[in-house]
Amino acid sequence: MHATLPFLLETDFPAIRRGPLQTLQVNLGYQCNQSCLHCHVNAGPRRTEVMSAEIVDAVIRFLANSPVSILDLTGGAPELNPAFRRLVRAARALGITVIDRCNLTILLQPEQAGTDRFLAENQVKIVASLPCYIKDNVDAQRGDGTFTGSIEALQRLNHLGYGKAGSGLELDLVYNPQGAVLPPPQQALEQDYRQHLDTQYGIHFNKLRTLTNMPIKRFGSTLVSQGRFAEYMDLLRSSHKETNLADVMCRTLLSVDWKGYLYDCDFNQMLDIPLQPGGHGRPHITSITAADLADAAIRVADHCYGCTAGQGSSCSGALET
Predict the structure, then answer these.
(1) Which contiguous run of DSSP H or E holds residue 156?
(2) Residue 156 C-alpha from the chain's centroid
(3) Domain 5-308 = CATH 2.40.10
(4) Residues in contact with 176: Cβ distance below 8 Å, sequence separation at least 6, in sequence order
(5) Backbone angles phi, psi at 71, to 5 degrees
């Protein structure tokens, strides 16, 4: 795999600083039942990195002593971590909203029987990957059979109440472009998703989130192999909008890797660009408080243009609607 960090460190991206901490995004491990082409984590079935029970305990302690209102669980497939349910229950007991970034097909695995019901019982918000509503496009990006499995999982979630008005069970879908292009306008694409998924499969959801593919890990390496890395970076830079800087996710989010080390965002985590607030060196979830982060400088590199290009892109989807 081609490393992309050397191409990203020299940057003219604007300096930005942190605001109040709202979201703790925790990567529970890189193990996954899929190996998607756009994956910025390079997750897959052969990855063995999984957050330990001890680090999960440290995450719970941090939540109990911080102003965090959202726990955002990601991976890999976060559900594969043995402590997934314990962490969800602990966060919900603290009154914290929990997001599960679910690849959908994981819910069909025999060892995950009952996970969909667990999520519903604990009112976990599901953010589910579905990079297109057309079978061939999804299978090309995520592997043969992925689309059919995703549709089945979505139908199961709808049956439990997810995506239906008044249920209190939120189901958002995530779109990623097929290649080195920016996502189309989020609102228009959401209407296409709604019409197609409802008409063809009777599926309902709350919101579509469009995400820009980041020039790192698996996707970035593919760009390097194709000789298109510089071209894609030119697209991101030329599409930068200053107004998106106010709402980039790193201002209110703290990213935790499977070992407990801290980063300004999930993308910095994958590039191993650690958080560096006020002389703390390489901070760990056990050695820092939310107060230590106040107004700290955010570490930036050229990949940050992926969050400010066009409509903007964050874990919540487009910044400009």
Answers:
(1) helix 146-160
(2) 22
(3) no
(4) 38, 129, 131, 141, 183, 211, 213
(5) -105, 115
